[in-house]
Design goal:
The chain folds into two domains: 1-16 and 220-349, Nitrogenase molybdenum iron protein domain (Rossmann fold), CATH 3.40.50.1980; 21-95 and 110-214, Nitrogenase molybdenum iron protein domain (Rossmann fold, 3-Layer(aba) Sandwich), CATH 3.40.50.1980. 46% of the residues lie in helices and 17% in strands. It has helices spanning 5-13, 24-38, 40-51, 60-68, 72-90, 128-141, 156-165, 175-184, 201-210, 235-246, 261-275, 281-289, 299-309, 322-325, 342-347, 383-399, 403-410; strands spanning 2-3, 56-57, 97-101, 104-112, 115-119, 145-150, 169-172, 194-196, 215-216, 224-229, 253-258, 292-295, 313-317, 333-336, 373-381. The strands form three sheets. It has a six-stranded parallel beta sheet with strand order 1-12-11-10-13-14, with helices on both faces. A six-stranded mixed beta sheet has the order 2-7-6-5-8-9, sandwiched between helices. Helix 5 (72-90) packs parallel to helix 6 (128-141), helix 8 runs parallel beside helix 9 (201-210) and helix 16 packs antiparallel against helix 17. The chain is globular, with a radius of gyration of 25 Å. It binds nicotinamide-adenine-dinucleotide, L-histidinol (HSO) and zinc ion. Nicotinamide-adenine-dinucleotide binds next to helix 3 and helix 9. InterPro entries: Ald_DH/histidinol_DH (IPR016161), Histidinol_DH_CS (IPR001692), Histidinol_DH_monofunct (IPR022695), Hstdl_DH (IPR012131).
Length: 415
């Protein structure tokens, strides 16, 4: 069960979108094409075929009723999560600038997106936390309209979370057909400017296919975690944290790297013990079979492999995690110390749990306020600056063979 660094290095080097496996892409393209061409008729038909019912919009009245029916414990949890997520994103620095200098005015306007679609997974579990973790930052950013999509039958917890997050509309639709509806628009579903949120292979592949027609924050897919542990770590907590991500789906991954063989052996035993009464044990076992325990030489090798893998979650279950934080280059999010576990990040720590997977943390980060904003540069040069800069621009234009550009610049020059 314990793997060597050599066994995993090649796998890590060749990592690609997990979602590409199988024939899902063909299915996704067919669904996208049908919804683009036929609108609502195809959307309802496909939803009926795959998810057993047509698409419907769920009115806000039903969200409020679901919220009012919550037990006090869940209501408190959702409200506390909302406060913490909001407070976190209010701290993100995103301001533009407009500065008058010797050359006139230069700056950047920062504007929220008009309409954003948020996909809330609901296939294997109703991820109401994902709704909060995506719709709340959208609202903090000032997005005009937040349109939610989640597979039918929508769980009451998702309706309540929509109410807590202050979203605008909610459609019971899932998978590639939901992404198609949000990207192309139909008679009933409004076309959005950007689609945010994670999902399974159908959702991720559909997002990738419609990129360009709409924006997106990235391609967050099946969850993954990589823990680096030293001798100070508690095997029971390590096993619990691995299982917390492995239970998401058979295509999830949960890795533990340590230079302490005895610790890995104790975690292996502990995994078996904890799996014995875990409701989603069968799913978790499949995920663990794709990942597992790795005996590394030392901390340096652990960090080198972690940066190569670029995990969604990097958990530093170390006596002194701050000592190695500076060496982390590729990760969706970092969790410091065994108490700051990833499951806290999933629900209530503050930062969104929507993070890059399948190695996309090499070039993308966790969901941020700026994902909901556009930056618009502003140019307002003075006459004096134009006299100095236009000849230089004209010279560059002629080098590019663009005479009209050069002349447009030279017409600004005063004798
Ligand atoms: N990276 C992150 O930030 C993050 C956060 C939360 C969840 N996740 C991941 O999101 C994923 C959620 O997946 P899920 O399946 O539970 O929910 P989902 O809502 O993403 O997918 C369910 C939908 O998939 C479609 N579908 C299923 N089988 C199909 C088939 N054979 N053909 C066509 N369409 C099909 C159906 O329309 C269904 O409604 C999990 O892998 C989880 O790990 C990631
Ligand atoms: N770990 C998942 C992906 O980051 C998010 C999640 C939602 N609910 C529980 N967990
Ligand atoms: Zn999780």
């Amino acid at each position: 069960m314990i793997k060597s660094p050599e066994q995993v290095r090649e796998h890590f080097k060749n990592r690609r979108l997990t979602v590409e496996y199988g024939d899902a892409l063909e299915t996704v393209r067919r669904i996208l094409h049908q919804v683009e061409r036929e609108g609502d008729a195809a959307l309802h038909r496909i939803s009926q075929e795959i998810d057993g019912c047509p698409v419907e919009e769920i009115p806000k009245r039903a969200w409020r009723e679901a919220y009012e029916a919550l037990d006090a414990g869940l209501r408190d949890a959702l409200e506390t999560a909302r406060e913490r997520i909001e407070a976190f994103y209010r701290r993100e620095p995103v301001g533009g600038f407009l500065e008058a200098g010797p050359d006139g005015v230069l700056g950047q306007l920062v504007r929220p997106l008009d309409r954003v679609g948020v996909y809330v997974p609901g296939g294997s579990a109703p991820l109401l936390s994902t709704l909060l973790m995506t719709a709340i930052p959208a609202k903090v950013a000032g997005v005009g309209e937040v349109v939610l999509a989640s597979p039918p039958k929508v769980h009451p917890g998702i309706l309540a979370a929509a109410w807590v997050a202050g979203a605008d509309r909610l459609f019971a639709m899932g998978g590639a057909q939901a992404i198609a509806a949000l990207a192309y628009g139909t008679e009933t579903v409004p076309r959005v400017d950007k689609i945010m949120g994670p999902g399974n292979r159908y959702v991720v592949l559909a997002k990738r296919e419609v990129y360009g027609l709409v924006g997106m924050e990235g391609l967050p897919g099946p969850t993954e975690t990589l823990i680096i542990a030293d001798a100070s770590a508690n095997p029971k907590l390590l096993a619990a944290d691995m299982l917390a991500q492995a239970e998401h789906g058979p295509d999830s991954e949960a890795w533990l790297f340590s230079a302490y063989r005895e610790l890995l052996e104790r975690v292996a035993d502990e995994l078996e013990r904890q799996l014995s009464d875990l409701p989603r044990a069968a799913i978790a076992r499949k995920a663990l079979a794709r990942s597992g325990l790795v005996l590394v030489r030392d901390m340096e090798e652990a960090l080198e492999l972690a940066n190569l893998y670029a995990p969604e979650h990097l958990c530093l279950s170390l006596h002194d995690p701050m000592a190695v934080l500076g060496q982390v280059r590729n990760a969706g999010g970092v969790f410091l110390g065994e108490h700051s576990c990833e499951a806290l990040g999933d629900y209530i720590a503050g930062p969104s749990h929507v993070m890059p997977t399948s190695g996309t943390a090499r070039f993308g980060g966790g969901l941020a306020l700026r994902d909901f904003l556009k930056v618009i540069p502003v140019v307002g040069l003075s006459q004096k600056a134009v006299q100095r800069l236009a000849p230089l621009g004209a010279r560059m234009a002629r080098e590019e063979g663009l005479e009209a550009h050069a002349r447009a610049l030279e017409r600004r020059l005063k004798d």
